[in-house]
Fold each of these.
Amino acid sequence: MSQLSTKHLLGIKDISSEDIQLIFETADNFKEVLNRPIKKVPSLRDITIANIFFENSTRTKLSFELAEKRLSADVVNFSSSNSSVKKGETLIDTVNNILSMKVDMVVMRHSSPGAPHFLSRNIKANIVNAGDGTHEHPTQALLDAFSIREKLGDVAGKKVAIIGDILHSRVALSNIFCLQKLGAEVMVCGPITLIPKHITSLGVKVEYDVQKALAWCDVANVLRIQLERQQIKYFPSLREYSLYYGVNKKMLDRLDKEIVIMHPGPINRGVELNSDVADSEHSIILNQVENGVAIRMAVLYLLAGAK
Ligand code: CP
């Protein structure tokens, strides 16, 4: 198989483990390209891609743009904060206006869950979901699993604890789908108020004690507290959260094994993760960012082939 089973990448829930393996194998090749003195290939030189971001981003936006440029695509960037969205233009009108300028693919981040799915039903271009509200962040999960595979040789059979604000996290949901499809065991850990009630129906373990979660896992993926999505108080204070759920070096020193530490970024240092762990030899956080470019090159390249 050399083609994805889908025209869009809307979520990990919708793709197969074969799709994920194909993305990884393609990303392996692009990672090799990225380590060459000339980091560019002509693969998408006839393709125009619009990056449409209705929500803030550093890593995902830059990573997609770099991936597109490394593939020789023409790139246009749209940010809602300085656009006619502020004058009341709808999502469909905004995207159709961009597409009428002969754009082939749309990479979109939006605060509403399902926005890229809605778009895929209404426009012809390939859509890549770069994060839709609290729903999915498929390329983040792919680069996370790819980074585990790179560090530990395989994802199958590994135990991954996702620690933090699970309730508001699109990274958590996409990671659960991706890791399970690749044969890993997944645990979620956080305060009871930040764990969705029915999460066990996804086949994950639930742990409320972070030290026990660290003792169980091979990999801890630590997530940010998403204060911008919290309309009510889920815990008394950030200081208290950090005291009970912040991962620090003392906790890792208590373990009788080495574990891998991940974080999708942005990190709130001293809240969910201390610098003595984030910057330690246990951390593969910057490898995740590096791998994001190769993974996004692979996704764009394969979707362009699916046209
Ligand atoms: N990991 C992630 O999505 O980061 P950004 O919000 O900076 O894109």
Amino acid sequence: MNYQWYPGHMTKARRQMQEDIKLIDLIIEIVDARVPLSSRNPDIDVLGQNKSRLILMNKSDLSDPVCNNEWIEYFKDKGITALLVNCKSGNGVKGIRAAIMEVCKEKIERDRKRGIKNRPIRAMVVGIPNVGKSTFINSFAGKASAKTGNKPGVTKGKQWIKIDKSIELLDTPGILWPKFEDNTIGMRLAFIGSINDEILIPEELATDFIVYMKDLYPDAVKEGYGLPQDTPYDYHCLEAIASARNLLMPGAKPDIVKAAKVLMDDYRAGRLGKISLENVRGV
Ligand code: G4P
């Protein structure tokens, strides 16, 4: 299936982000830990020049721990601090504050030398849709946070969330758009559910997923549904899933579309195991 997809409102979002970036010291980039490269837009490296950087590999509850560690090293080699987090449960969120202070230490030192005291670090969250930007802001800001800045409707000032005396977060995240440089990137994003399923054909998406799993995690689908070892890695696997789950149409025919949806839902919810869709070796 062709996964190329271009949202129309990309230019406006980018322009907004260029404006917002002027106001901040630090970019907190959120990526999906299952696809840490496919879920980032490398434009942020240019947009965020001269800013401190932190990458949060979110949804790490769903990704492969071996790959997670390799990705942390990969980003470290590129001079970027990356942390594993699960913003839904809050796992790893506590460590973010210390990482922010560490990546911003030059700015803090610069301020100190100039005699500027207590100027909070201002940060902005960016990422492609659905990586967990809002979940992160809620989790990091917590209940104790208070909004600062101007009231909306009164002036056009930005809203900042005061995390503590040294960190403020812009309350609206910057939306980046995925870069569909090749079809595989679009396909991985479709697998994790980042591309609206309504524009995809469920049984084709699920078949592509089964084929993709063959080399990466050959047993995941078969074990997940108790399928025979000789089940082929193609469309017939969907028939086998339909039979195993008793997803039948009138006349006892396997309901392929339902099986396709069940498979993708199960993968996305982590019910097939902790599965990463790309690794540092380029797969
Ligand atoms: P966005 O602002 O970047 O667009 O993403 P958002 O926070 O809305 O999160 C998108 C989905 O990802 C939400 O699921 C959210 O709960 C889920 N999510 C965020 N962080 C994590 C994480 O670390 N682990 C897991 N497993 N899921 C995460 P949803 O289905 O849209 O909503 P809900 O049913 O969870 O409420």
